[in-house]
Design brief:
The structure is a homodimer of 371-residue chains.
Chain A (H helix, E strand, L loop, with lengths): L2 E10 L4 E11 L6 E11 L1 H7 L9 E3 L6 E5 L2 H4 L10 E2 L4 E8 L10 E4 L8 E5 L4 E2 L6 H4 L4 H15 L4 E5 L4 H13 L2 E6 L2 H9 L4 E4 L5 H12 L3 E4 L2 E3 L1 H16 L12 E5 L4 E7 L7 E5 L2 H22 L11 E3 L7 H7 L8 E3 L2
Parallel strand pairs in A: 11-12, 11-14, 12-13, 14-16, 15-17, 16-18, 19-20
Antiparallel strand pairs in A: 1-2, 1-6, 2-5, 3-7, 3-9, 3-20, 4-5, 7-8, 8-10
């Protein structure tokens, strides 16, 4: 049985135009180990936005409704075109993750028909998607596709952060942009596991939200005494690892400096090299596109660097990855539950006003595409 | 047999005064495994300056010659006093490394008497030093103490950089402040080992000096087309690791960005995460005390962090460390030879004008104390 699908595509032209379209695609029948998933929910994560919109200027978004289907365009500022040259002229399917129901399967995967499953197979902003059965998370009776839609990116990132912490010998951690969907999940996970977490938020309301989830350490980067709050929370928890979604500006460096200040206050070093305890900040997002800065006075045992879930999973290997995935299935309605600001159709996802709303990346907001 | 010695001391007072003095010390007789070294040469490395002068302002240096021995003082700016509070009131002996002749020994170390040895035992700015025989490098007949004086810090750092490169899976490297004594040594070592090295210098003269030593890749950070030169040299060598002595300012970040640009040009990534190849810059000095900055556009596989020889040697362990030490002995008059701007006595090392000269850290300049 063959299936057709409509899928969302993003193209950047050599002239610097972003084009968002909906294309018809004829799917090949599933192979012996493959299934056809009817996608019923696929979230728009920050990592999706980077591919979907590229460096387009949202102010220039416009839609042409003269054809059978809308075509949305926007302008890429010329100085950013070089950064995306590898994708110029390529019509790229979108959507890192999503969930739905298995509606067809090859001979070795027929037991999956009717199951609610999720996948992080890419091109999930589509009605139907052919996926290898082995790449699915299969959910028990009673879990809906909407509940299962965000089962990979955020849950595995939260688990990956704790896995990194243990692998690299730290015992507590700091998280910035901590009131995000991911941050809320990490808070719940750390409460469950008894891991001390210092949450860096930007408002008292965000702090209250996390405290309601059981967060013990919340510091506000907009408070005048932020550095003292941060150093004191780091001192109390012994955190020497941070995950930073802000990326640019002074925040990552301030965290390293606060860790060093807490360590030096505890064990004053005689020599000029500061504390010998390694302090690490991983930048996993770049809400602030300005340069990352690290001040002097952080000693010699420090590191700041990029962190990407896929690199981490490659590092820990398939078996450890599968253990994390099994934990997500167990906790999909509790620890790893996501909530959504709005549900939108594929066509609505091309509306300039809707794009500007989901592209804002407002803290705690998250959109779900229901194809 | 007991020995007395005169040693150079550095003290910071609670009032923010740096005091450099020469003190008489009665040495205990050597234990069964110890020797007494008559120190005949001890270099002033940048790492010594950090302890010797701390954050004192060199412009405030003054000497009091009214007593039997000179006492040199300088002012620590109040804002820096917190950073050195662990050493306040402590009279610290100085000098990380040095060499001399064994003049006395305990019963198990008598075979070392008369040998030229070097040690990185600390408090080497002294006439006599008691050291464990096992901690010495022992040089063959014909090597002078002056030749052996800088056998640890720079040679082991150069070897440690190559050892880090191999341990972390890189095949070529970038070095900044490349015309320094250490940089010249690293150039010779890389020529010998056939490792591609990109030397970042600040003048054409510095570049010529390295080219004379066989350097193939020299780029000048004061040239208008520095970024293009750097990216092109990184592309030619495949360097994904750098050691940066400048530390502050944009240089470390520019190196990461150049590595990313070279990688992306070779294998353009379709997705928004840049090249998956890890790019690493280790900051091992801070000639520039301003914040270290890393621009956006470096992908997600990058790291910038501190690097200290002692941490690296602890990481590779005693056996690997001893292999490196043996290589230094073999190459002390060739690959690992040092030259000195001037030789100064302990008393001269307290003269304000002399201090200002050796504290300048001018490229390629190095002073030797001959106690």
């Amino acid at each position: 049985m063959t299936h057709t699908t409509r899928e969302l595509r993003s193209t950047i032209t050599a002239e610097g135009e972003l084009r968002l379209t909906i294309e018809d695609v004829e799917l090949s029948p599933p192979g012996p180990d493959e299934v056809v998933v009817r996608v019923e929910g696929a979230p728009i994560n920050p990592s999706d936005l980077a591919s979907l919109l590229g460096p387009a200027d949202p102010a220039t978004l416009t839609v042409d409704r003269s054809g059978e289907r809308p075509v949305t365009t926007a302008t890429i500022p010329p100085q950013y075109l070089g950064a995306v040259k590898a994708r110029i002229g390529k019509s790229l399917a979108m959507g890192n993750e999503g969930a739905g129901t298995v509606v067809d399967a090859g001979e070795n995967a027929r037991h999956l028909i009717g199951k609610v499953v999720s996948a992080a197979a890419g091109r999930m902003y589509t009605e139907h998607r052919v996926v290898r059965g082995a790449d699915l998370l299969v959910f028990p009776e009673g879990i809906t596709p909407k509940q299962a839609a965000s089962a990979f990116v955020n849950p595995m990132t939260a688990l990956g952060m704790l896995s990194t912490m243990r692998l690299e010998g730290h015992t507590a951690l700091v998280h910035t942009a901590a009131a995000s969907n991911l941050g809320q999940m990490l808070t719940k996970l750390c409460v469950e596991e008894g891991v001390d977490l210092v949450n860096v938020v930007r408002s008292a309301e965000q702090g209250a939200l996390l405290s309601d989830l059981g967060a013990q350490y919340v510091v506000n980067s907009n408070d005048d005494d932020f550095r003292e709050q941060l150093t004191s929370a780091i001192d109390a928890t012994g955190a020497t690892l941070a995950f930073d979604a802000v990326g640019g500006g002074p925040l990552a460096g301030r965290i390293v400096a606060a860790m060093e200040a807490a360590l030096v206050a505890k064990t004053p070093p005689i020599g000029p090299y500061g504390s010998p305890v390694h302090k690490q900040v991983y930048v996993y997002g770049r809400l602030d596109p300005s340069p990352t800065t690290v001040p002097p006075g952080v000693g010699m045992a420090w590191g700041v660097g990029g962190w990407l879930l896929t690199y981490h999973l490659a590092r820990i290997g398939a078996e450890a990855t599968n253990e994390l995935r099994a934990r997500v299935v167990d906790g999909i309605t509790t620890t790893f539950a996501s909530s959504y600001t709005a549900e939108i159709s594929l066509t609505e996802a091309l509306e300039p006003d809707v794009i500007r709303a989901y592209a804002r990346r407002a803290t705690g907001e998250k959109y779900l595409i229901t194809p």
